[in-house]
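Design a sequence for this backbone.
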């Protein structure tokens, strides 16, 4: 059993997103083509489009990592998409808010302190495999960056 943590935007950022959503909705053209495309009219790439709601919710919650009993905290670096080291990670966290998977808001400084001190003498994949050599059920790889245990998988919970 563990708990996942997410970075969500600041109130100001959500308000900006909300204003943009309202503007996009009020400027929607109710053409048959737009309706058929489910209003996917906002370019996001060469051949990709999003709709106003998708734009509003895009990356609104970013998985930061997970704590599990007996294990060191496991960070999710998302292939370095938002941060690449401890300094940029903490800057990213402090630019928003932190919630756990139950929706409880946690002050960013308390979250960072908890993550850094969570089960520091606990397992990582190497120590677990050493103590339990026959289990070998781990298929993902982890690494350390600035002393932080990082999963090379971006999709875990």
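Sequence:
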């Amino acid at each position: 059993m563990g708990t996942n943590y997410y970075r969500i935007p600041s109130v100001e950022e959500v308000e900006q997103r909300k204003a943009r959503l309202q503007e996009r909705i009020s400027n929607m053209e109710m053409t048959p083509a737009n309706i058929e495309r489910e209003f996917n009219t906002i370019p996001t790439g060469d051949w990709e489009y999003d709709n106003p709601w998708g734009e509003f919710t895009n990356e609104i919650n970013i998985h930061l990592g997970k704590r599990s009993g007996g294990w060191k905290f496991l960070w999710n670096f998302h292939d370095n998409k938002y941060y690449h080291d401890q300094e940029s990670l903490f800057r990213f966290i402090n630019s928003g808010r932190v919630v756990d998977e139950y929706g409880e808001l946690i002050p960013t400084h308390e979250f960072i302190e908890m993550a850094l001190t969570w089960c520091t003498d606990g397992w990582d994949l190497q120590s677990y495999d050493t103590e339990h050599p026959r289990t070998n059920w781990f298929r993902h790889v982890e690494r350390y960056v600035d002393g932080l245990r990082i999963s090379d998988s971006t999709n875990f919970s």
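The chain has a mean pLDDT of 93.
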